[in-house]
Amino acid sequence: MSTTQSASSWTLRCFAMEISRQGVDQRVDLPGDHPLVGRFVPDLWLRDGSRLADHGHDGGFLLLDRTPDGAFARLAAAWDGRVSSVTDDHATLTGVLVRPDGVVAWASDTTDIAAVAGLEATLHRWTGAPSSSPEHEPVG
Hints:
- It is a single chain.
- The protein contains three helices and four strands; from the N terminus they run H-E-H-E-E-E-H.
- It is α+β, with helices and mostly antiparallel strands.
- The chain starts with a helix and ends in a 13-residue tail after the last helix.
- Helices cover 29% and strands 14% of the residues.
């Protein structure tokens, strides 16, 4: 093996070690202020022992609703057939809408009116008009 091959091999090993140490952080440029928006959905475990990813095999959008009253899932029901919802116990991350490619399109840590409006706008942006009129009930 030549010195050049040896140096190249060493460089690749160092690069691979650095990636494995730090990980690869990829972000898609999407509108939204939440730090998860535009990133691949994290491996979120649900109370029933399943992972969020376990529920996303139908090829559509997946909404995780952790609001105490299921407000996000009720809103998303108007996009039935394009968005499936999973409800879970209340947590700091109250809602996440995941695109079919695994990228977070919308996320929220609150259940306020702005969160509901943000989810509705994102659903319109990515999945078009609702099949039925979305519910607009007070949240939180």
